[in-house]
Design brief:
Largest sheet: none
Number of helices: 13
Order of helices and strands: HHHHHHHHHHHHH
Strand content: under 5%
Shape: globular
CATH class of the largest domain: Mainly Alpha
Number of strands: 0
CATH superfamily of the largest domain: Hypothetical protein, domain 2
Helix content: 55-70%
Length: 248
């Protein structure tokens, strides 16, 4: 079976318009700095761990400035560092208490369970594999963006999705993008789905469909092709779409 999408000049113009309109938004600027500047990330287990926790916390909860999620993630010091968890007698209970202490964070017991499981998996040998993916993406990040870079990005995202609890297609990509290492795979959520509907995209998008890895990749491939034709990087388009909803 073959499905062929033909993009109109109007489709391409809409991509360019949204990226131009929101190019001065703070979130858009931060994405440019993190994912496209000459300053590339370095490997740090604490930073990696913070990003794992961030993905678990933001999976189903808003994390805008001042929210309980934001206050927890940007607390100084961060409550559940690798060092703190290493000294805790019961990681699950320690994490749950720290989450509940901040107030307003949903699913604390489930997130605490995921924290324990994922940390155990990292300490059982996954640190090595995760670092290998990190350095593959880092070498790409040092180069000028090329569409074929999506292959290593997708492989790294699938690794996260298949290895760690509480991720899924979106957060497995959000993980690498937040580290500044992803430019061609999309971080798709309901906001992006709403924008696609507004511009007349013919395929309905739902949370259930976006939770399916095969559909997620199918949709990403279509959107990546559109971005290539519009000469706009996918990580820039999704930053613009996200900024458009933040600005409302």
């Amino acid at each position: 079976m073959e499905i062929i999408f033909r993009f109109t000049d109007q489709d391409i113009q809409r991509v360019r318009e949204v990226t131009t309109k929101f190019q001065y938004h703070t979130f858009f600027h931060n994405r440019m700095e993190k994912n496209l500047s000459e300053k590339v990330p370095s490997f740090s287990r604490e930073k990696i761990w913070w990003t794992v926790v961030m993905c678990l916390l933001t999976s189903q909860q808003r994390s805008n400035s001042g929210s309980p999620i934001s206050r927890f993630l940007f607390a100084d010091p961060f409550p559940i560092t690798l060092k703190n968890l290493g000294a805790a007698g019961n990681i699950n209970e320690f994490t749950r208490q720290e989450l509940e202490n901040i107030g307003g964070i949903r699913f604390a017991p489930k997130i605490s369970e995921y924290v324990k499981v994922n940390l155990d998996r990292l300490n059982a040998g996954e640190w090595k594999t995760l670092e290998e993916h990190f350095h593959i993406l880092l070498e790409q990040r040092k180069q000028n963006p090329r569409p074929e870079h999506y292959l290593a990005e997708r492989e790294a995202a699938r690794y996260m999705n298949e290895t760690f609890k509480g991720f899924g297609p979106k957060q497995s990509r959000n993980f690498w993008q937040d580290l500044g290492l992803m430019r061609y795979e999309f971080v798709l959520d309901s906001r992006f789905g709403k924008w696609l509907k507004q511009i007349g995209f013919p395929i309905p998008i739902s949370p259930n469909s976006l939770s399916d890895e095969d559909f997620y990749c199918f949709l990403s491939d279509i959107l990546r092709d559109l971005c290539v034709r519009a000469d706009v990087l996918p990580c820039i388009l999704d930053a613009a779409v996200f900024s458009s909803y933040e600005a409302r």
